[in-house]
Specification:
This protein is α/β, with parallel strands linked by helices. It contains 11 helices and 10 strands.
């Protein structure tokens, strides 16, 4: 899959990479980038060939948060304008959240403000040991409103409140300790670690991987009894599916399942 945009690059087929591509200003969000990311995420979710999405930044940074010129324009916005603007950003994050395949954040450098939220919205966050992360909105008299659900999902409400209230910026090692990063590696090893993760994911059935992601999210949101019924239906459907039957047959026959070929 490849598409032409001005602020981002979209490349790949089974493994799709979306690169924030404004390296000269550290890949900040503005209206154009948000619109392009929304469009790309919606298209990727409709692409049957996609099995994994990688989100990263060009140059030295992952994403430095909000573009300065965008922030200047916000200063002139009315309440209605701000609601419309925040709604656009929320739709972008929702488009990312709704992607069925695993999403890996390749955090090659600083991830600040909205950029930190973008990393947290991904299923896996693999970071360079040179990367930094922080939610600095409070220092501007603001708050990380749109991105907060994804940070809370990752670290919990109490920890998220601490991160939001202090606005502290963390080195990669501490970010891993806090749960913001899943793995931290040397910059030269970033691609190798992500390649290993991709290979591991690819051993699973494509539909089963999607259903596992859906299962975990459902469990986090449903009441216990409702989730129990969901689980019964989910396993019954996947067992009866062509992929489920092929996987069990391959195991019993001591051969590789079709999707690994």
């Amino acid at each position: 899959m490849s598409s032409k945009y001005e602020s981002i690059l979209v490349e790949g087929d089974s493994v799709v990479t979306v690169t924030l591509n404004r390296p000269d200003v550290h890949n900040p969000f503005d209206e154009k980038m948000i619109a392009e990311l929304t469009d790309a995420f919606l298209k990727i979710n409709k692409t049957n060939s996609a099995r994994i999405l990688i989100v990263t930044g060009a140059g030295k940074s992952f994403c430095a948060g909000a573009d300065l010129n965008w922030m200047k324009r916000m200063g002139q916005y009315s309440l209605a304008d701000n609601i419309e603007d925040a709604t656009g950003l929320s739709k972008m994050f929702l488009a990312l959240e709704n992607i069925e395949v695993p999403v890996i954040a390749k955090v090659n450098g600083a991830a600040l403000g909205g950029g930190a939220g973008l990393a947290c919205a991904c299923d896996f966050v693999i970071a360079s040991d040179k990367a930094k992360i922080g939610f600095s909105e409070v220092k501007l008299g603001l708050l990380p409103g749109v991105i907060s659900p994804y940070v809370i999902d990752r670290v919990g409400g109490k920890r998220a409140a601490q991160l939001f209230m202090t606005g502290e910026r963390f080195e990669a090692g501490m970010a891993r300790t806090l749960g913001l990063f899943d793995d931290v590696v040397e910059p030269d090893g970033l691609d190798s670690v992500i390649d290993g993760l991709i290979k591991q994911i690819m051993t699973g059935g494509p539909q089963a991987v999607k259903e596992c992601k859906r299962l975990a999210r459902a469990g986090a949101r449903m009441e216990r009894d409702e989730f129990r019924k969901y689980c019964i239906n989910a396993i019954a459907k996947i067992r009866a599916s062509p992929e489920g039957k092929e996987g069990v047959s391959a195991f019993l026959e001591k051969r590789e399942p079709a999707w690994r070929k």
